[in-house]
């Protein structure tokens, strides 16, 4: 089974994307397997609504474990299963909290062995940040992803006003990336993401 | 700080020695280097499988079990390749029966099999849910099916390991255990691709158990016998356990332990716990060593590591 990992800056909308994408693929509930840094596995069965209430938050670093779910996708007459893993957001600086540092290390470890990478970028943050330094981590993920191939960039939060120019800025900053504008909140652009995932699994 | 392997980079990042940006850069460099030499990322699942087999080979004794696990691995791999070539492939029913005395490594092997199946893509999650009669059998009519289904749901995508499974058929016709067996038999057939059932218990009792429901034997195609460990194997297990805990057995202690570790056949005792008994002996000896040393004013590093005959003398098997 192929594994798809969602990475990005904290609060870029990774968990919301994962859950809404599962819902878009027809799942009403999900079995979420959380893997801690020391390898402990915990499995929970949640409805999509409950999962959103419990796992999504405006606060930074809500996700501190690798949270995987197995999703089914109809391709032609067959149904193919794949693993979608949500990760702890990665920021530039060394974090003061050890749990978060471990979770970030876990994310990096998974990025190395996952079959393909979905890189979620927060367009509103792009708009706010003037210097390239503040997007350093996104640059690193992008460069790592393009070397690895099987990489796609999801420009999230298209539902917010004033983000159109950020998309243009994004294309200039990440010239070799395939960029899909999405809104994780309203499931916009998910058809294109689904087509990409279907090609890779 | 020098980092040679990717795992070093991740540990350094977790310890706060390097920032995520630096970690990314280092990993990219390493991957570039390995790409020009070998293809490490491509072979990741294969590498993981090899690690799992190393873990299995690291278990002392269990020769028959090890060869059977490799046989299952080969069977699944070949069936997958046949499917790729559009050839008829046998349906993979992988429910199993583990027969053997306590402490012969049934649970340990089940865990390894779970990991192996996950890496091979047979199971989605490969986790192990370990249950016994009390977790499956209810207290009133209808409660048993509900409890059993709950456990089956937990085991979805992994392995449901029922220890002392023969106890489900122990209470006779009116016992609720029968209801649990009926529920299991149905699910084993309907959801054979979603989970793997392993029934474990003593050899003799399991044979009797299989006769209680005619559908059981045919639905559990893989039978693995866990033989009792020989005296020498138990001794090797004891030494391995000591080594893991950074202790050593003195020569006299080894001789005494060897005498104690008569195999169950010689002891004619069905309740001998094999490796588990060895673990209990070692742990008790460690505690006794602590009592012996605590009164000493000066203790050397060697003394802290050495288990002497006196530590084992009062320990009973």
Distance between the termini of chain B: 49 Å
Shape of chain B: globular
- Which segments of chain B are poorly predicted (pLDDT under 50) over 5 or more consecutive residues? 38-42
Oligomeric grouping of the chains: heterodimer
Assess the beta-strand content of chain B as a share of residues: 5-15%
Order of adjacent strands in the largest pleated sheet of chain A: 3-2-4-5-1-6-7-8
The CATH topology of chain A is given as Rossmann fold
Count of individual beta strands of chain A: 8
Order of helices and strands of chain B: HHHHEHEHHEHEHHEHEHHHHEH
Q: What is the global morphology of chain A?
A: globular
Radius of gyration computed on alpha carbons of chain B: 24 Å
Instruction: Please give the alpha-carbon distance between the first and last residues of chain A.
Output: 8 Å
CATH superfamily of the largest domain in chain B: P-loop containing nucleotide triphosphate hydrolases
CATH architecture of the largest domain in chain B: 3-Layer(aba) Sandwich
Q: Give the CATH H-level superfamily of chain A.
A: P-loop containing nucleotide triphosphate hydrolases
CATH class of chain A: Alpha Beta
- Helicity of chain B, in percent? 55-70%
Describe the structure.
The complex is a heterodimer of chains A (201) and B (317). Chain A has helices at residues 14-24, 48-55, 98-113, 123-128, 136-148, 164-173, 190-200, and strands at 2-8, 29-35, 41-47, 66-75, 78-86, 116-122, 151-156, 179-181. In chain A, α1 (14-24) runs antiparallel to α2 (48-55). The mean pLDDT of chain A is 86. Chain A has a single domain (2-200), classed as P-loop containing nucleotide triphosphate hydrolases (Rossmann fold). Chain A has an 8-stranded mixed beta sheet, sandwiched between helices. Chain A is an alpha/beta fold and 201 residues long. Chain B is α/β, with parallel strands linked by helices and 317 residues long. Chain B has 3 domains: 6-37; 45-226, P-loop containing nucleotide triphosphate hydrolases (Rossmann fold, 3-Layer(aba) Sandwich), CATH 3.40.50; 231-313, Helicase, Ruva Protein, domain 3 (Orthogonal Bundle), CATH 1.10.8. Chain B has 16 helices and 7 strands. In chain B, the strands form 2 sheets. In chain B, strands 2-3-4-1-5 form a 5-stranded parallel beta sheet, with helices on both faces. A two-stranded parallel sheet of chain B has the order 6-7. In chain B, β3, α8 (177-190) and β4 (196-201) form a beta-alpha-beta unit. Classes of the chains: A alpha/beta (201), B alpha/beta (317). The interface between A and B is medium-sized, with 34 and 30 residues.
